[in-house]
Amino acid sequence: MKTHNTLPKNVRSVSSVILQASLADTLDAWSHTKQAHWNVRGPGFIAIHELFDKVADALAESADAIAERLATLGGSPSGTARDVAKRTALKPYPHGIASERRHVDALCKSLAALATSWREAIDRCDDAGDAVTTDLFTRLAGELDKYIWLIESHIA
Asked: 89, 68, 65: which is closest to 77 by C-alpha?
């Protein structure tokens, strides 16, 4: 897409590829979080059920920020369920679990994988010379670290 963005085209191209991959992973992590939210059971149900919903909301906001940055660079964000399923690098979320402990473990694994991919995006965007996208991923990774800590604290 034509844009008046002054970032060099090759930098925008590199960042767009990174952003699209991150969008797929983020939307997949959102779906993992909703899966846990809908299926968790146990004595601390209401607290963890609400926390999972809060994390899902934060991931939806992160996906929106990633998609908008991609569009800003002249890209065309693609976040349909089919596109996400084709592009995500996350492992599938396990089905058939209900216990708080197992959902905490499974969800933290998914979120940690997302945090790792965002940290890689930080380095790659920085190497490409896109400080704004680097800053976006830095902010998002810090927020995700906090949510992982909050979730882990439920069974510590």
From this structure: 68
Domain 16-152, classified CATH 1.20.1260.10, yes or no: yes
Query: Model-level pTM?
Result: 0.96
The owner of tokens 């767009």 is 16
Distance set, CA 146 to CA 104, 112, 141, 142 (Å): 14, 11, 9, 7
User: What span, in angstroms and rounded, lies between the C-alpha atoms of 44 and 15?
Assistant: 41
- Output phi, psi for 122, to 5 deg: -55, -50
Q: CB–CB of 56/30 below 8 Å? A: yes
Q: DSSP 3-state assignment of 99?
A: strand
Q: Across the 156 residues of the chain, what is the mean pLDDT of every consecutive 10-residue run?
A: 88 98 98 98 95 98 98 96 97 96 97 98 98 98 98 88
Distance CA 42, CA 44 (A): 6
Compute the 3-state secondary structure of the chain and give helix, strand, coil in percent, each to the nearest 5.
75, 0, 25
